[in-house]
From TrEMBL:
Protein name: RING-type domain-containing protein
Organism: Rotaria sordida
UniProt record, GO biological process: proteasome-mediated ubiquitin-dependent protein catabolic process; protein polyubiquitination
Keyword Repeat listed: yes
Top-level taxonomic group: Eukaryota
Amino acid sequence: MLEQLMSDVIDSSSSTSTIESSRSSKSILQLITCPICLEIFREPLQLPCQHTFCKLCLERITEDRWGRCPVCRGCYRVPFAGVGSFEVNRTIVNLLESLSHTEPKPMLKAKCALCKLEDTITVCEHCREAICCKCRRQHYDEFSRYISSKLNETQQETEKLIAKEVENIKNHEENVCRSDDIANVIRNKVADLIEKIKQEETKLLHNVQEFSKAEQKLIDEKNACLQDLSIINKFCLESQGILHSKEETDQEAIEIRQKCEEYVLSVNDLQSRILIVKTPIRRISFFNRDISSDSISLGFVEIGMVLEPIESTVQLSSIFLSSLKIEPSSTTSSTDADLQHCSKQLIRCLSATLQQQSDYPNGSSPSYRSNISTSDNNGCCRQQLQSQNHKRTPRIIGKRGTRDTEFMHPSSLAYSKRDQLIYVCDTYNNRLVTYSIDGIFQQVYTAISETGEIRFHHPYAIHIDSDNRLYLIDQSERRIKVFNRDFKLIRVIGQYGRDVGQYSAPCDLCTNEQNYIFVCDAGGHRILKYSEQGQFLLAWGGLGTDNGQFKCPACVCILNGDRLAVSDWGNDRVQVFNCEGDHLLSIGQRGKLLAEFFRPLGLAYDETTERLFVCDEGNNRVTIFNSDFTTTELVHSKIGFHGPYDILLLKDGRIIISEHRAHRLQII
């Protein structure tokens, strides 16, 4: 009886402990489960409202700089560095680490991702899938095969890269040896030049020393004559006094007479040597022959650059063959679709570029400006290339820093015709900087005025209209502000949002002669049109790759004929519209050839020559298109470009380019 009672007590205590453990497991599971994905936390981040979510879940639900908590619906602002900048919930992290050592991982009741049966499952640590115990082996086999295939592909690619890098290292070693040889040649030439200069120095110094010795000899002779004359002059003075004091001739007077006769002869001799004989007066001079820097130049060191040919040219070649009316061996439907959107002018330009590339089979890109003219004769397409070397030495303004003449990622440029000032958006220094047209620093406009008024916060784009009003896009506040020239706020254009007439991420704007305002909304992938007073009029675009659609439009500028050009940054092209939003033309595609782009940004239009300038930021160059978009050329700089962002054309033909990666301006 006692044994039965003891067993009942033990059974009851064990059941009680089991219930308590299950309750504690459920409570712990609630604490470590993400409210969004309903799985165990992975990289738990804590919002300002103290609610915690997985990092991937937050990135998935966050579209812009502002968001709402899924639990309490409170607003939160995403830091500039992204979602990952939120504070890590250390309590949850420590709890997960302690559970991994003390208890088995909590078991979730859900359906298996493989067999679709409801069973006790665990979460796979690799893919975060819910897998039951029966399917774990099968899931691991699939995972192992997938990883093995990826490892095999990676190994093959690595072997190719290793071979390529070995070849590159060999080429660099050869360049090092050649540079050593060139350095020795330069040293020998400099040594010879120094030896010749020393010989010339010895000859000139010898001539000067000979003249100096001759003059010193004459000085000694003249000093001797001067001494004799001084003695005679003294004798005459003393003798005259003696003779006046005597009353009759004596021996002393006779001696005076004898010496006087001798001195008379000496004076006559000296007089003939000093006055009668004309002694020439010599002068020494040195005619300096200035040696210019060009005359002593030993030569120059040229560093050539050979670009490797692009491997993926299938689609481009098919476009070229279609433009030349030659049937390719294999064509795809995507190529035919692309051909429907290409204008005849673009095809001719690309064909000329292909001809140019065939003239340089090693893939090198010559430093010239090319003029391409196309003419059809009996169904044949002929290209005529003319080259002209026009490299110019640029003037560099600024470097990375926070001083008045330094920048931190300069972006947009604008020119005031009335004030003749150049405005630069120094974005990360949170200011505007002005320069004269000669590149001389003028003034800095800070974010806070002298009266304490907040003007802007991280200016991103700037524009000055015909009435000298200043339009500024505020990156942090996402607002478009209009100022007068006293920097007093006139009005705010539009408002932040995703509804009709609102913008989510404005990045550039421009105005036409009627003072209509056109805004690039990169977040909404569209162009917005406003009146001069800020009233919304029209919007067009949308996310996509078709003509008239955009993927993060970056910059906009007005062309003649009531047209405007838009740099379609994500689609690597430039699109041309009329002011009512009708698509007229698309220029370029992704690539490195002359008429291709990689992330185009700033635009500028020359009204005199009707040429369009495009900052090809990804390819680190500036491309020029003619009025019919068939003739292309490049803006050359002897130091090259590093992240060209915006371009400004001056009346005297000079070009100003802002480079946000190099933190500087170039005036060419």
